[in-house]
Fold this protein.
Amino acid sequence: MYGKKVRLRIIFIISVLTTIALSIYIVLKLLEDNVVYFKSPTEIKQSTENIKEKIRVGGMVKKNSISLDNEKIFFVITDFKNEINVIFSGSVPNLFQEEKGVVAEGILQDNNLFFADKILAKHDENYMPPEVKESLK
């Protein structure tokens, strides 16, 4: 029905498409473990499913909520509608403070308690590192 050249081209095209599809599948499977979903306290409170994978919770650090106990830091993340209690062991970034933006990465114990293993402090577009600010004075 088809000539030898046409059959070879069809086989080549099918093998290239199969290889591309397989490569994309492998890359997506490998990245699946590194994908961390971002949720706000309100989304967590409204969620009916039990989240077991690592997530990021973002919002503002509630005023007067930071407390230290031995090597643990306790604080509350709020989105001004709902709040999540956070427990973190380790050092926090310099920008971490009350009434500032923060993203905590870790595992949700229940809809009210979050065990963070990483804290990322957020800043606004007007942020300037202290060293640069001093040099401009």
User: Anything to note?
Assistant: Residues 4-33 form one domain.
